[in-house]
Design goal:
It is a single chain. By secondary structure, this protein is an alpha+beta fold. Helices cover about 20% and strands about 35% of the residues. Helix 4 runs antiparallel to helix 5 and helix 4 crosses helix 6. The longest helix has 22 residues.
């Protein structure tokens, strides 16, 4: 057995990652969007922390880590294991040798703003995931166990990477990898109950309402949603209409006269929110387009009063990750001599009260333009 208790300053930031080491903890923030919830499993993660060296099975990866918003990704070899991620993305459990976007739901919850001890154990005939000592996943039928590629890949050793979503602060307190001579000593105590996707945690048969869609959010965020809802529905001249997605996973506010929308994506105790000038998709694809797109001029208006805020909002645009070549939703914006390609032209906000204040500030700038005679398109 060989246990590698890694020094945090040995982790290698790759791609668009900003790091700081202080008081025995390593913080890392990704500054560009990752292909976390896209359907193409071949899309590489461009930004991450890399562990030095390569490691051979049987092995165990131990992390003491916290995040302040969804989500966290551990990437051993060709695999991916998601923690604290939103909605459908919690089903990503990709094989370490042969990833096939396995839609395998497991209890991937970790606390926000609190450290969790995560262990991934890859034995030759079993795999296990533990969070704070609790078994969350066990399988003796992973693809790698019978893969003809395993021997060669294991001979070279597997790289291990750790990543978090754009603008999420990931804090690492300890990282260790243990390589075993024969077996990793997995103890599987009992069959785990199946984990299924639900209608935002709403009990079967319960009527879908605004209140029960947000009932499981932390209280501070629930208040932000309620405040934003009341503000948007009274905002003139935008006149935002509230729409509820059938499963309660999205609450959208649409200003149809201006082709503008703001959406709160919520599932159980997690959320993120976005704003955009939406694409009209009625008819053939060659006729698709927007009624209007005021993103660049809204950023310019914000910059008149607060250039630093406008730059920060420009950085909030959800970067195109190239998941579909020739995608019609890829939108290029320019600001202060810089250009960025945004997925669907969206500006994305995190699961934090200050981000709700930021979103309202941007929407207020849109509304002021409409008041000032910009008019409906």
């Amino acid at each position: 057995m060989n246990k590698h208790a890694l020094s945090l300053d040995a982790l290698i930031p790759c791609g668009h990652v900003e790091t700081a080491l202080r008081d025995g903890e390593l913080t890392a923030t990704t500054t560009r969007s990752l292909p976390t919830d896209r359907l193409n499993v071949a899309l590489p993660f461009p930004s991450y922390l890399a562990l030095p060296g390569r490691y051979r099975l049987p092995l165990r990866i131990d992390l003491t880590v916290k995040i302040n918003a969804p989500g966290l990704y551990v990437l051993p070899g060709n695999g991916r294991v998601n923690f604290g991620t939103f909605g459908m993305d919690n089903r990503r459990l990709d094989d370490i040798v042969e990833p096939r976007q396995k839609t395998c739901a497991f209890d991937h919850r970790i606390p926000l703003n609190a450290f969790a001890d995560i262990a991934l154990v890859y034995d030759l005939h079993a795999m296990q995931i533990l969070v704070d000592g609790e078994e969350r996943y066990y399988s003796a039928r992973e693809r790698y166990m019978k893969s003809p590629s395993l021997a060669a890949m294991n001979g070279e050793g597997f790289p291990i990477r750790i990543a978090s979503d754009k603008r999420v602060t990931m804090t690492l307190r300890a990282v260790a990898v243990t390589e075993y001579d024969t077996g990793a000593g997995i103890v599987h105590t009992a069959d785990l109950p199946p984990v299924t996707m639900t209608n935002n945690g709403i009990p079967e048969g319960e009527k879908l309402t605004f209140d029960n869609c947000i009932a499981r959010l932390p209280e501070a965020l629930r208040r932000e949603v309620i405040q934003t809802d009341a503000w948007l529905r009274g905002l003139l001249p935008l006149k935002c209409k509230r729409l509820m997605e059938a499963h309660g996973n999205k609450i959208t506010y649409v200003a149809a006269d201006y082709g503008f929308s703001y959406a709160i994506h919520v599932h159980d105790a997690l959320l993120f929110h976005t704003l955009q000038w939406y694409i009209l998709t009625a008819g053939k694809p060659e006729t698709w387009g927007r009624k209007a797109d005021w993103m660049e001029r809204t950023l310019a208006r914000l910059a008149e009063a607060d250039p630093a805020f406008a730059r920060r909002m420009f950085a909030n645009l959800e970067d195109c990750v190239g998941c579909a070549p020739g995608c019609r939703a890829r939108t290029v914006y320019a600001f202060e001599g810089k250009k960025t390609a945004a997925c669907h032209g969206k500006m994305r906000f995190l699961m934090r009260p200050p981000d709700f204040a930021d979103a309202r500030r941007v929407i207020e700038a849109v509304n002021e333009q409409a008041k000032g005679g910009a008019g409906a398109p």
